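thread from #wetlab-drylab

HS: before we spend reagent money on co-crystallization trials with nicotinamide-adenine-dinucleotide, can we at least see a predicted complex? here's what I'd submit
DV: go for it
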Amino acid sequence: MKKYSVFTLARHALDRRKSWSRAWRDPSPKTSYDVVIVGGGGHGLATAYYLASEHGINNIAVVEKGWIGGGNTGRNTTIVRSNYLWDEAAHLYEKSLVLWESLSQELNFNVMFSQRGVMNLGHNLQDMRDIYRRSNANMLNGIDSEILTPQQISEIVPIMNTSPYARYPVLGASFQRRGGIARHDAVAWGFARAADKLGVDVIQNCEVTGIRRNNGKVEGVETTRGFIGARKVGVVAAGHSSVIAEMAGIRMPIESHPLQALVSEPIKPILHTVVMSNAVHGYISQSDKGELVIGAGVDSYLGYGQRGSFSTIEGNIAAIVELFPIFSRVRMLRHWGGIVDVCPDACPIISKTSVDGLYFNCGWGTGGFKATPGSGWVFAHTIARDEPHHLNAAFGIDRFVSGALINEHGAAGVAH
Amino acid sequence: MFEMAAMRSPLNSLHGEDVPHVEFNGITLTELPFLRHYNVRFQPDDQQASSRFRQLLGFDAPQGPNIFVVHEDNLCAWLGPDEWLIVTPFHAKDSLDYALNEFAYGDDFVTRVDISAAQTIIRATGPKAADLLGRGVSYDLHPRNFQAGSCIQTVLARASVTLFAQSAAAVTIDIVVRRSFAEHLWNWLVDAGQESEFHSL
Amino acid sequence: MLLIRCPWCGLREQAEFSCGGEAHIVRPLKPDELTDEQWADYLFMRDNTKGWQTEQWVHSGGCRRWFNAQRDTVTYKFGISYKHTDPKPEDGD
Amino acid sequence: MNQKNRLPTGGQIDRSQPVSFQFNGRTYGGYTGDTVASALLANDVKLVARSLKYHRPRGIMGSGAEEPSALLQVNRGARSIPNLRATQTEIYDGLKVSSVNCWPSVSLDALSLMNWLSPFLQAGFYYKTFMYPRKGWMFYEKVIRRAAGFGKVSSEPDPDRYDKINAWCDVLVVGGGPTGLAAALGAARAGARVMLADEGQQFGGGFLRTESEDNLQWVSDVLRELEEFSEVRLFKRTTVAGYYDGNFLVLNERLTDHLGNATTRNAREKIWRVRAKQVVLSTGAIERPLVFASNDLPGVMLSSAVSDYINRYAVKPGQNAVIFTNNDTAYRSALHMLDNGVGVGALVDARTEISDPLFDKLAHRGVKMMKGSVVVRAQGKKSVSAVEVMRLSADGKSLEGTPEKFDCDLLAVSGGWSPAVHLHAQSGAKPVFDDEKACFVPGPAFQNEISVGAASGNFSAEKAVSDGYQAGISAAHSAGCQVVDLPVIQEVSDAYTSEYAIRPLWQVPGSGSSDRLKRFVDFQNDTTVKDIKIAVQEGYQSIEHLKRYTLLGFGTDQGKLGNINGMAILSEELGQDLIQTGTTTFRPFYTPVTFGAIAGREIGPTFFDPVRKTAMHDWHVEHGAEFENVGQWKRPWYYPKSGETMDQAVNRECLAVRKQVGVIDASTLGKIEIYGPDAAEFLNYVYTNSWSNLPVGSCRYGLMLGEDGMIMDDGVTAKLGDNHFYMTTTTGGAAAVLSWMERWRQTEWPSMRVYFTSVTDQWAVISIAGPKAREILTKVAPTLDASNDQFPFMTFRDSVVASVEARIFRVSFSGELSYEINVPSDCGKDVWEKVFEAGMEFGITPYGTETMHVLRAEKGFIIVGQDTDGSMTPVDMGMSWIVSKNKDCLGKRSLSRSDCIREDRKQFVGLLTEDPNKVLPEGAQLVELPTDARPTPMIGHVTSSYFSASLGRSIALAVVKGGKSRMGARIHSILMTGESVPVSICNPIFYDREGERQNV
Ligand SMILES: Cc1cc2nc3c(=O)[nH]c(=O)nc-3n(C[C@H](O)[C@H](O)[C@H](O)COP(=O)(O)OP(=O)(O)OC[C@H]3O[C@@H](n4cnc5c(N)ncnc54)[C@H](O)[C@@H]3O)c2cc1C
Ligand SMILES: NC(=O)c1ccc[n+]([C@@H]2O[C@H](COP(=O)([O-])OP(=O)(O)OC[C@H]3O[C@@H](n4cnc5c(N)ncnc54)[C@H](O)[C@@H]3O)[C@@H](O)[C@H]2O)c1
Ligand SMILES: Cc1cc2nc3c(=O)[nH]c(=O)nc-3n(C[C@H](O)[C@H](O)[C@H](O)COP(=O)(O)O)c2cc1C
Ligand SMILES: [Zn+2]
């Protein structure tokens, strides 16, 4: 496979007979693998990549029921940050952020990680207490974090409505400059290509329909393309985690909800920072193509439909127009939904299970895109060593029994 | 020692001491302040309670959903399978109070709560009133669907409300709204009333 | 936007309702006697069914009654709505 | 006003109303009824835009929603709108529009050199470069970003209003072409409530682009009849933008943009939220362009658009045309051109068998009819000047013969028709591929919907009318209308009916001379055939990967023209059927919708969220209160006297309460009447403590847990009678607590005999606190014996206060002698004023939430949500005394889980800073020792922190790991500034630890 660089690009441009090779192969499933990863989203592909690159396991298949990156990886608002409240979460997301910072070079695929800064707004006194609490914790955890006054906010984002007369005025914000956005599809493609290069089989249009077990130990997966044997199976199926857990006779503390996002028509760049507001519920950034990328809240009912209700979008847009009155005349191009796997404490499960050789990585809910490299990295460790890395030790499924939840709801301003 | 307390409806402050009233586009909005409102609870299958209700109040509490009945001074609306709203004018307060007290004393699982100060009524009148309310109400207010005598509990401009179709063709609709939301709802209706396009439904 | 049938008030718009999640999760009568695992199962573990499931809804903007409704979590189509006092019907179509 | 290409007669424009408008700073003329596109063409303006990536010159290609290229900036200043399609923007006097994405001008665009760089810029190039050095992307991105986007957003807030309304109907007809009009008529005659919406400025759809007077007459006859039905509503300029679950559709009506500067009171746009029992989709079909070299040049236009411009707008889009088609529809356009003075040099038809009745007629009129041929290339710099034509091989895969060149300034293309299945697909149905017609047609319906007319792949006008009519009637029937014998609908005759015959042609094969030229598939995103090939080579072979890798269909047109060709070319490359390739997902909206309209009126200080006010609100305003938002409520925060800072005001208010007396409006507390024989038992379940033995007339504090054992809410509940309690909740928790209790009662314990009624709004609460409180109470409630014996702490009394029947609770959140006087809200302000008057002689001071917070912090009382965060148990908060050992309650079982009984959990404590004047920030983290090493382990955080005027020093509440057993320990807070503040752990009760003051 050719390395991507400006030189290969030029050679291809100048020599029309040259053609690009496949970014990843289209292999047929082998009869068995050391590890089968279920789910070809960013997390699954990253897991495969790190299993191969960090743990020397190369006999791996990633099986994806549709096309890789077509799940939440392909439909999220791409916000990346690590300023989480609780130590366990903060360290995990920070590991991920550090990986993001050199991911394009590592994968030799430009994932366009743009560290343009992420702002979380506070609209009431309790928001401001929570912002101080979280920022201060970030600082002590060695994660960059600032607290901004409304004045500073309007210097960075002059188009924001920081009027004290607003219904819920902006009282301040936390700001992580190292946060930003990335090109979501490229993350899936880049990991797939890099994993493929290390020998991983990326198998699309192959749905897992059963988990074969014997004596409490996993033997492989039944798929729409036949049985595939495996010594270990890592499930990274996001919204479909419960469905696969059921195949293995496991119960999960997860609910799958629709989460919606939308884009405007492309306009000339005007918003250079990511802005999030939990209180008025909207978050927004402007992509490098010019469209405003906006996220809404979850719909309250379970939904595997990859779509949600219009009323959610209405409230979301009202919040955006309230914060950015000049966007009133911009027009919405398209809105869509994903299926987010929500845990009661809004934190993931990255864990062994009661079935030997079966591992789950799920529950990322509304905010796992930012964790893609870190999640893959710790999950690869967990699968390879059959024990969690210290970074994901707290994210076991047993915490729901002991009560050691990592409550990133509320105080942490958890969202995307 | 103390004089009778001066009562204020939640909308008083909008218009001095007058009863709030505006007209636009053939729609009139006015407040019906200081009516007496009671929340009444009893089990519909409690035969004794039902018959005492009839005896003391002179009518049956409506059994079906989405309807209200009017008997003399009292309006009685279905709010739930074991819950009713009774509204009566100020002057009829004492006799209703008496009847409801009697009613409640007879049974330990019958209750009535005076919520007169907890809510008020905004009356919207005019052939286009339903069109105005339709800006916030998701229920179909077309007279084919919302006939005189209908009452529905729904959400209007993010406030919980109960709507009464007081006349045919939805010409008069009474909106029961919680006190603390009343000013918001009033402002909202007046704002929506600025639109120049209104239709009769 | 879903149209939901309240067993009392009839068909109303989603805006008047709140969803309460999976139905028929019974609170253990003697929590004290449960192991932590059993308690966790009641507290947190969910079927999270893909397809027809029975769930709780409340007509919060209407009559404030809770009821159960069948719904397909993929198509979002509703089956039967019924009161808590009614028996659990068969799964929807 | 020189409108060179305007036909002398005809068209739907209003010649009595000439209009002048500006394009790129130059003034042009047109008429009311023109779009920007038709008026520019009338003025012979062809070059209107530059493409996104290569900055190639672009013109007007379509005449409606499908237009990919002619996106303009409309208006200046606050009313400026980006990205409007010239083809759907109506002109009015004074309108100003301009091209975007070009500098210095559309004809001299500096960035057009991008075209030369294009070999580097092919699909996916971004992913392959700009990676080095590591931080390089931040630099490259800045440069690349400059080229992003089309139009500009205005720098001023939007001055316009937007309206929104709910509507219900029996039948919603989408699209007011012949099919839709007939459907609406059928449904209306059947007695249905009908809504008919069309995005255009006029009804008539495809009939408007025919030459037939009869057709127009038919349209106006039908409209006249429709207008007579009171239950029929007709919507022009109204796009049905989205089709959702539950047969819910979103309509976007544009009310004022076309009126321009004429003053109007109207909202600019209106969103209709429609619930339709039945939907008739008569959305017509969209003509497809053809894919050949340089097919994007200005002057290349859809043949239906040519007919539209000629017949509807009386504009000749060119003088000398060539037509390139693979189906019959373009023959009709040829006739339109010839009849209106546009020369037709050649009609190039890919088909070899042609049965169209017009074939001979056209040949007769001198058109060179070229069967089995294709245009391989358009020539010209900034617009078409000639085309090259060659013969197509029988298998369609190669070219034959030598190119023949035809000069022309207009190339009308027709690649066949694609039914507008967007809404059908949005509703959840799946379009299927029809091989015969070479297009996707609607599949089985998923909701109550039917597609008819061109939208269903039936492209004949006559059938459109009768099918539409029938569809309307049966929709009405399905919606519950009684359908009795209805008159038949007036038929429409067509002199030139032809069967729709097509030879699929998804791309013209490459020829030697044109191989290096670009063949565009998606015009807006500059996606070419080559890009698709590269994507396929690289493995991006799912249609969804192709879309994301090449941006096919990603534009503001959502691929209305390009998608089908792109999907077909992908299929050809992969050697698979189109149905195997499938479509990408159709999503709302059909065309983009203004944010402001979607937001509607629920924005701004008044309407973004309801403002809830207490009965005494006006008094607070009159007395200078600053307000705090607490949920939706406005609560007085503090009452600064003139010149006072917040700190000074709060200190004064605090001292007044401790030394004399203060009064606070506590009306926002949630209040619930609980009644029934099982009321006490129910409380035993929702509160951690026991309620069985509370005497009537007493009050008790209660704590509620979630089932996970974490603190959820708290408040005081009084026992009013045997079966009767009055519960208070936190302001923010009021609604949640009520529904929590209802839920348990109704779903889990349906046999419990207890009722809940919210009375939050019923009672205004005037809370007086301070040593002088009793004296005031005695003054305003002269009949009450308020002595400590008769009315002790934690009891309540009914009494008359200021002539109003009141419930008085002797409870205290400040630690002082305190009474909460509840009176019906309509008397709230009056009683408040009388209490205040009575208190004047005692120095009564109104205080706000800030002072309340300080006073309770001095007493170590928690505020749920501030001192707790959803991860704190009663044990953590030092409140194990309130969890009864003798009964179960919600959440209790969770408290014995292994993690909840750890000794080193965070526990509630007080903190004192070494420097008494240092007030810690709330939220500040706590560590053992100050250190610069990161990460630094944290052992807790500050939940509340104030300067206490009564104590003359700062105080703080916090949660600290194992804090209860560390009294006196010295720990630190490291602030955001880096400053480290030493603090010592102490008992969280700072003031009157014995609680004597509230008991006097
Ligand atoms: C609208 C929206 C906005 C969001 N915004 C953000 C944000 O701004 N920042 C952020 O950090 N996170 C965000 N998220 C969350 C984020 O997208 C996800 O947490 C993350 O992408 C999950 O990645 P994944 O690889 O685990 O899941 P996915 O990408 O969903 O991958 C799971 C894959 O498993 C496959 N699969 C499922 N079942 C089977 C089976 N039986 N056999 C084979 N394959 C199967 C699926 O097809 C899918 O491709 C958002 C999510 C949504 C929906
Ligand atoms: N002979 C052919 O090959 C061919 C091909 C296509 C169309 N036609 C002609 O088209 C006509 C068919 O009539 P028809 O009524 O089915 O189609 P039509 O094209 O005449 O009408 C469709 C109408 O729907 C409107 N519309 C589309 N999507 C909309 C939306 N989302 N919201 C609001 N409005 C929307 C359009 O503005 C248009 O006015 C006949 O005259 C037929 O001859 C012929
Ligand atoms: C960050 C981001 C930006 C997007 N930008 C666009 C866009 O500019 N144009 C567009 O049509 N869709 C855009 N989409 C939406 C996709 O078209 C698509 O709707 C989404 O990936 C979900 O997939 P689906 O609609 O095919 O189910 C974007 C999606 C994301 C996640
Ligand atoms: Zn109901």
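DV: The radius of gyration of chain D is 38 Å.
HS: ok that's useful, forwarding to the group
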